[in-house]
Amino acid sequence: MRSGFLAFFLVFLPVALSAQTSGEVQTLKVQGNVYLISGAGGNIAVQAGDQGLLVVDTGLAAMSDKVLAAIRKISDKPIQYIVNTHLHPDHTGGNDAVRKAGLTYVGANVTGNLTDAGVGAQIYAQDNVLKRMSAPTGVQASMPFGSWPTETYLSGRKQLFFNGEPVEIIHQPAAHTDGDSIVLFRRSDVVVAGDIFVTTSYPFIDIERGGSIQGELDALNNLMEIAVPGLQDEGGTYIIPGHGRVCDQPDLLEYRDMVTIIRDRIQAAKKKGLTLEQVKAAGLTKDYDGRYSAKSGPGNGDMFVEAIYKTLK
To answer: Which helix (H) or strand (E) holds 222?
Structure first.
């Protein structure tokens, strides 16, 4: 029997992702060492260098062969690390296949060459991702064992130095979910936002898995602090959203302000005693719906309003 988690996404993801899973993937060099692979579900980032490859998110399971082919066009170096920005299967479904295609190195021999510890890349994520993917003994896990993180961090941040570049994996509590991470490639000046920031819809605040409107806004503000605009507000830090096109700081600013304005409207209505149904009927997102509301499923206007209403303190 399918878990509630998988059943939800099996119903809604085909609609929400139809424009982004045409059956083909595309690769774009963002800047520095970082590339974007799109069209496989959630956006995938790849950092490439002499030491190997670090992959952020892995897309849908059904797209794994095409994702691996796209990765190999970037570099034939070994995949050493996978980082998951959160647990949803449009970002983690390819974990097992991409992990098996990689190698884990643990040190160097006397000649200075890296020594191979065996088949399989390491998968990093915030600890809540592992907790929600796995399950207590006797309970069916929401995701297969091969997709689970092999290394987790509890809070704050996890830091790596890979391909001559500092990489920071930074926890964003109770935002899109309770296990969100943003990934900052400091030398390349690229940040991977996961589904905290998308260009294709309103934020999907997954209440069942610890998401909240205040955590979402805190995370967007944290991204704002990291991102630096370029000359005349073009370029600078590039942001890879969970879905949609590569952005810079002014794009993020526009999105953050939209979320803040809608939050404030719903907060004022709730203080006046309006019920959830009255708030939905009031059309408080009408001026943004044409740009951001998904046609159905995660990211549509009604779901966004409901998530804000239910998680406002």
So the answer is: helix 213-226
Q: Is 61 helix (H, G, I), strand (E, B) or coil?
A: helix
Q: Is the pLDDT of residue 240 over 90?
A: yes
SS3 161: strand
d(CA 249, CA 255): 10
Domains and CATH numbers, the chain: 4-254 (3.60.15.10)
pLDDT band, residue 90 (cuts 50/70/90)? very high
Contact indicator for 53, 71 with CB cutoff of 8 Å: yes
DSSP letter string, 264-290? HHHHHHHHTT--HHHHHHTTTTHHHHH
| pLDDT surpassing 80 at residue 3 | no
Confidence of residue 114 (pLDDT cuts 50, 70, 90): low
Q: Which residue has the tokens 């799109």?
A: 38
* Positive or negative: CA dihedral 110, 114, 119, 125: positive
pLDDT at 6: 45
How far is 125 from 127, CA to CA, in rounded Å? 6
Q: C-alpha distances in angstroms, 31 versus 58, 62, 228, 230?
A: 20, 28, 14, 13
* b/e sequence 175-208, b meaning 16+ C-beta within 10 Å: bbbbbbbbbbbeebbbbbbbbbbbbbbbbbbbee
Q: Is 302 helix (H, G, I), strand (E, B) or coil?
A: helix
Half-sphere exposure at residue 282, Cβ-oriented, CA atoms within 13 angstroms: 17
Rounded-to-10 torsion of CA 212, 215, 220, 225: 180
